[in-house]
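In this section we walk through a basic example: taking a raw amino acid sequence and producing a predicted 3D structure, encoded as discrete structure tokens. The instruction is simple. Fold the sequence below.
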Amino acid sequence: MTLFANKVAFVTGASQGIGKATALILAKYGAYIVAVDISKEVERTAEEIKQLGRECISVITDVTNRERVESAVKTAIKQFDKLDILVNCAGIVSSSLLLDLPEELWDKTIDVNLKGVYLVSQAVSKEMVKRRTGKIVNISSQASKVGEIGNGAYCASKAGVNALTQVLALELAPYNINVNAVCPGYTDTEIMQKVFEIRGPIEQMTPADYEKDLLSQCAFEAYGQT
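The resulting token sequence is shown next.
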């Protein structure tokens, strides 16, 4: 499949969950992948992508650190000479009632989920501006639209991602760079399994024939199988 043939995708949070699934499906459809994560597990993602016959490099970095982000982008440019797609997927979930939420947990959640999007988008978009083309997709959340008890920091960070996405879309449009956010609901990934027991309730709310619908199947393939 060659939908993204010769395109280079920079995917953060690629060691597990939605980030890993996104990297794999972009590779499946022809893209070269820069798999980025703070965890060494991202190297496994790179190996799986290579088994698909796609070129891939893994870069271990901290999206909250400007120098490390810029170094990761330089590594990607050195390898592939361009970046066509950015998927900002690195994120954490913090669970605590606001009255009990430690300041350090608030800071860490905002840093990873929001500052990380800012730093990576800034570094990658500078390369895209040079070529006057690019696609940026920020992985936000339904939690950005509704409050969730015990998820104050997470909800705030994802609402910030939505606002930042809108600003980036306006500022980068003159350079033919599209910026969008995707807001998934509960997704059965490693990070969610540590916080919620979600499979049973979500399956009960899901129509039995959802896989028969083409759009649902595409979403299931991209995000449901990790």
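Looking at the output, two observations stand out. The chain has a mean pLDDT of 87. The chain has one domain: 8-187. In the next section we compare this with other chains.
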